[in-house]
Amino acid sequence: MIKNKTIFFLLPNGITVRNFLNTGIIDALILKENIRLVIFTSSPSAFDKYRNKHIIIKSFIKRNKMNLSNLLNVILRRRFYKVNQTVSNKILSKGPLFPKNHYKITEYLLSQPFPKSKGIYNFLRFVDEKSRGYSSKVLKLFKKYEPSLVISTHPISMDEYEFLRCSKKLDIKSIGIIKSWDNLTTKGYIPVELDHYLAWNEIIKNELINIHGVNKSQISITGIPQFDSYFERENIVKREKFFKRMNLDPNKKTIFFATSPSSIGPEDPDIIFEKMKFFKDNEIENIQVIARLHPLDNIERYKKLKEFNFLNLTFQIPGKNSNRKISGITNPDFITELRDTLFHSDVTINTCSTTSLDAIAMDKPVVNIAFDLKPREYYKSCKRYYDFVHFQPILNSGATKLASSFDEYVNLIFRYLENSDLEIKQRRDLRKIMCYKIDGQSSLRIVDSFFQQLK
To answer: What is the torsion angle, in degrees rounded to the nearest 10, for the CA atoms of residue 191, residue 211, residue 186 and residue 16?
Structure first.
């Protein structure tokens, strides 16, 4: 039996809060006896219901960016991309997803000289590991609570750096959860090497081994915790109630359009507009559209659509229509609302999004937008996304369809509205590859992995 152990749980941003607060992981942890949980989070109010003597909620301590460790890691990250270059980060170096945060000259200078030199990279890594790397505030927290395990929910980010560096200096075990399927091939660099890692599937496990040199014994495969609710079909909102809430008709075919941030899907408003106009011009009234906004998208982009007042179009802003006090991505209804929307829709549309996996998990047809309404060079075109490493298993599976033009996009939508069973075998096979198991037990496998590290 594990006796009187303290766990530090690091939740630095909204997505990590969503993935672990709303999936059953925290609930499973607090059921364990003799465990004290100290949660450091960017959203303390989201955890108000958990506060007691065994669960301590603290605001996440923002790291000091003006020090040697931060400078070293900025340089190391740039060099890592050169030493361990993937197709994805090669594309992103020329066509970044968020251009405003991309400084080509600075990034070039930081990777000089000999940007692909493993010797220089390893030397800088050694220097970083010998530096202190954490503040006195963080050290005091370790001394006060004396944790036996530190859980990193975003190990490729610098947000948790001070906690993880401190845990390493004090020889306290750490475990990192790879947050998403694209993290290791598009972002990649892990600032602090951890004792153990949790991966969604074999693909991510192999990326940890091949890109980061992690021993396979240090990796556990758990599945995707935020997909656990997809197994719980009995909790899905009834069709009539769902569509009444959305001001739509339960008897009509429904298209689910998952938007992207403006820098990734700049033409999303225009594509939706052209589709709605096509339906209107052709007097197609038995099809309706739910456009669910990405957490980083802005409803103001869709003013034109609202002005036309398309009756068969509604917008879903995650968390906004909930009765909960917490809004946005940390809202407890974020995941269940997405599940219900997928379940009651007939086809899902997105641009190279994780929503493709959500839909596959719910056995829903997917059409991926792989065209530009206006001509764009490759490094500004959505077409480049489909060359990313993490998306290749989906393309190779044949479980989704790429629309390379607007006409093909419309035809593929009608194809699936007529027969949603098309590609059903490919979707089933892809679920096994990407999701490991959709059995409602991923959260419990994650918690079990935590406790294996405490023994």
So the answer is: -50
Range 286-323 burial, b when 16+ CB lie within 10 A, else e: ebbbbbbbbeebeeebbeebeeeebebbbbbebbeebe
Would you say the CATH fold of 231-434 matches that of 5-65+133-224+440-454?
A: yes
Rounded CA gap, 163 and 167, in Å?
A: 6
| pLDDT for the residue numbered 103 | 63
Q: Are 339 and 279 in contact (CB under 8 A)?
A: no
Q: Are 214 and 174 in contact (CB under 8 A)?
A: no
Tell me how far apart the terminal alpha carbons of the chain are, to the nearest angstrom.
9
- β-pairing, 347-350 with 366-369? parallel
Contacts of 165 (CB under 8 A, 6+ apart): 69, 132, 133, 134, 192
Q: Given 1.20.1250.20, 3.40.50.2000, 3.60.110.10, 2.40.50.360, which CATH number is that of 5-65+133-224+440-454?
A: 3.40.50.2000
For the segment 343-360, the average pLDDT, to the nearest whole number, is 97
**Per residue in 227-282, pLDDT tens?**
999 998 888 999 999 999 999 999 999 999 999 999 999 999 999 999 999 999 99
Q: Say which DSSP state 246 is in.
A: T
Chain centroid, CA 420 distance in Å: 26
The phi, psi pair for 193, rounded to 5°, reads -70, 130
What are φ and ψ of residue 316, in 5° steps?
A: -115, 115
Tokens representing residue 201 in the block: 């599937």
401-403/149-152 β-pairing: unpaired
**Which pTM was predicted?**
0.92
Helix (H) or strand (E) run with residue 402 in it: strand 401-403
Give the number of residues written for the chain: 455
Which residue type sits at 285? E
Model confidence at 327, pLDDT cuts 50, 70, 90, reads: low
Digit-coded pLDDT (tens) for 111-149: 788 889 999 999 999 999 998 889 999 999 999 999 999
Going from N- to C-terminal start, the domains of the chain cover: 5-65+133-224+440-454, 68-127, 231-434
Tens digit of each residue's pLDDT (9 = 90 or more) over 414-445: 999 999 999 999 999 999 999 999 999 999 99
Nearest-angstrom CA–CA distance, 255 and 278: 14
> Nearest to residue 365, comparing CAs of 352, 356, 354, 378?
356
Query: Can you tell me the distance from the alpha carbon of 320 to that of 116, in angstroms, rounded to the nearest whole number?
Result: 47
Are the C-beta atoms of 182 and 86 separated by less than 8 Å?
no
Per CATH, the number for 231-434 is: 3.40.50.2000
Residue 54 identity:
H
